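[Discussion] Sanity-checking designs against the backbone

I'm trying to build intuition for which residues belong where. Below is a structure token string of 69 positions. I'd appreciate it if someone posts a full sequence so I can compare it with mine line by line.
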């Protein structure tokens, strides 16, 4: 039977995902978790089609504005 993910593990996974870690790079941070289980949980917690926050929208908008000078 699979071991349930704790709240602390989920929070760490989300934090690492936001920092750009891949599932493979996360393996050392999770005892007794495989790359596949990390990838599976990441897809549930951090879906690719999730909406951006207002702050993320502002950052994107500023980064894509054309500079005249």
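Best answer:
Here's mine. Compare freely.
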């Amino acid at each position: 039977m699979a071991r349930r993910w704790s709240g602390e593990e989920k929070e760490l996974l989300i934090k690492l995902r936001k920092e750009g870690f891949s599932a493979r790079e996360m393996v050392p941070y999770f005892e007794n978790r495989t790359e596949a289980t990390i990838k599976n949980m990441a897809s549930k917690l951090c879906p690719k089609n999730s909406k951006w926050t207002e702050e993320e929208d502002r950052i994107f908008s500023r980064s894509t504005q054309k500079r005249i000078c």
